[in-house]
Amino acid sequence: MQRFFLALHATTPAALIAAVFVHLWGPAGLPPLAQRPVWSVWALIGVWLLLSAAAAWALRTVALWRVSLGGAGALLAVAGVAGLVLGSAQGPAMLVSLVAVGLVCGGIAVFIGPQRVQAHRRKASRSAAVARPGSAVHATTARPRWHPHRWARWVGPAHWPFWLTGVLALESFRLAHIVATEPARSSGMLGLLLAFFVALPAATLRHWAPRTAVLLWALAALAYGGLAAKAGMVQWAVASALCALAVGAPLRWRAGQAWWALRWRRAGHGAPPAPNPGPDRHPPEAA
Amino acid sequence: MTSQRTLNRLFTLHSWAGIVTGLLMFIVCFSGAVVVFKNEIDLWANPSLAQLPRSEKPASLDAVLAQLHTRYPGATVETIALPDAVNPSYFAFVRERGAPANTRTKVALRSDTGTVVGPVDSQLGQYLRMLHVFLFFGPRWIVGFLGVAMLVLIATGIVIHRKILAELFTQRWGRSFRVVMSDLHKSAGIWGLGFHILIAATGAWMGLAPLFEQGYQYITTPAAMTATKPARKAEASEPVPMQSLDAMYATAQQAVPGLEARYVSLRRWGTSTAEVGFTGNLREHLASTARVDINAATGVPRKVHDPRTAGFWSLVNGLMEPLHFGDFGGLALKWLYFFLGMTPAFLSISGTLIWLDARQQRRREGEAAQGAAGGIAAAG
Looking at the predicted structure, is the pLDDT value of residue B235 above 60? Predict the structure, then answer.
């Protein structure tokens, strides 16, 4: 999945150049390109996904970037030559430009590689070797196994404010862009702005600045309530109620924490353990 | 001085905002860098129009419209694009009789005589612009929100990478992958900082301004007025003779001195409610949102928008598009925009690679720690 995700980046230039070729030689039997038909969009998306899948399957990280950049450079040169052969306006200038950009892509493809970085993270390899003495398996070859907990944590209660924000944004988008009749359209636009500028910061700040988050959720609840009153749509009333629930969630969480602390003390353990602040995600190398 | 705790939080925010929006950001920035050459690409991707001449004195708009009506009887001419610095020809967007409601054909016309050449070969430049601005299917808001996300990434990036001057020139080759990539990420981000702020802010503005405007109007308009508008009266769309397009263009130029129309849009042409809109640039001014709407039956202007005199925010709004796309300084500026526009695309990729590498390292360290714990338990 990770390789496919990277391949989606790496193959974007090549897919766009493929779209250029489609536009230079539009296939017969389909709606003409003068009408900007939707098939040309699906063609690009299809080529992009197929290229990405093939690249992810066939190529490892460095090779993926090298082949993608080199391929894009070569395709750019071919496109430039094609324009010249077809007699396009500004053909020579475009040929020079495309070849120059293609050479830059090719140059980057040659430039990148293991020689620019340490081949392997010696420190990590060493620590892996120390951790598993006698093991022949290299640290980088260990494949992560699917585990239900990995997926469950994304849908767990810790992330529900983001899910709520996403639901608010999606429903607002649906009303504003797909339903697109008044009052759904205008109120949907406002709902979208609220989801992005109020609910999303509230979800983001819930651990870092809980009071601000509560205030933001309260603001969102009020604003969605106002929208419900103005537009008379049940969606905004539900949105307001959900945001009001979100206002209460941190308070309930704090009450829960206090209850657990009390139980801990009553059990004779003294002061409850401090919550784990988690690992420092700020890598010193990248700082 | 920002505390380490705040820095860690901002780093987390920077990382997650980047990884969540990274792919879309990459596509939008990459296509945006290419789209600065939209007009050149459109010209290049139409080989059949390569031999069309550039006329010093283009044919009149009336002649162009007459040629279109002769060639496409019964069709609706919606927009006429005038020749510009790159494209020497007239173009028109025509809804042909019997065609689906959302299908427009782009037609080329000679600029010297107004003769219809025929449908263009392709609309590659506009196609790429559709990817950049609308991601093909969506409204412009999505890219507007991405612009805001980019501003957040820039702001958090500036705070967490505080040694800006030092990082401009720091590139440690031969170190670990993450160090090399992180140095590239930071130096590219800092070298292009001003440009990144410019395109993020202008992109966010252009994407979200309509949303704010519409929302504000909705809030400030009484509920009774937002009810569905009554259907237009049947007698209001009776066929009537139209005023001359050239005369109306002259009227528009009187209303907005210096107006250089790029597009002429025709609505309900041939009826008593017909309107013609002239939109375009202003001579010796950067703003691109000048517009005059004229009643085509009477020739009287209905709505005049001159960004120079319509207030501060209108002027700001009029400057957004040229500042975002860099189409006001010739080819050299376009190349500069192209190369600088590639840097946020690179930042998306490098940021993603750094994030994935950090995640892999954490995973390896976790596995190593588990292994060590297992070894100790077995030994005990």
Answer: no
So what's the ipTM on this one?
A: 0.88
Mutate to test the interface with A, among B218, B338, B350, B361 (most CBs of A within 10 A): B218
The H or E element that residue B155 is part of is: helix B141-160
DSSP per-residue codes, A153-187 = HHHSGGGHHHHHHHHHHHHHHIIIIII--TTHHHH
**Measured between CB atoms, does B2 come within 8 Å of chain A?**
no
Query: Which CATH number is correct for B46-121, 3.40.1350, 3.10.450, 2.40.50, 1.10.1040?
Result: 3.10.450
| Domains in chain A: boundaries | 2-116, 157-266
Tens-digit pLDDT profile for residues B20-71: 999 999 999 999 999 999 999 999 999 999 888 888 889 999 999 999 999 9
User: How large a percentage of chain B has pLDDT more than 70?
Assistant: 94
Judged by a CB distance cut-off of 8 A, whether residue A40 touches chain B is yes
**Chain A environment of B130 (Cβ under 8 Å):** 36, 41
**Per-window interface: B 225-244 vs A, CB < 8 A:** 226-228
Give A263 to chain B, closest Cα distance, Å. 30
Contact B297, B268 (CB under 8 A): no
Spans of all domains in chain B: 4-36+141-219+331-361, 46-121
Residues B368, A6: C-beta atoms closer than 8 Å: no
For the cut 80, the answer to whether the pLDDT of residue A234 exceeds it is yes
Instruction: Record the tokens describing residue A85, joined without a space.
Output: 């052969």
**pLDDT tops 80 at residue A8:** yes
Res A279: pLDDT: 45
B274: closest CA of chain A, how far (Å): 24
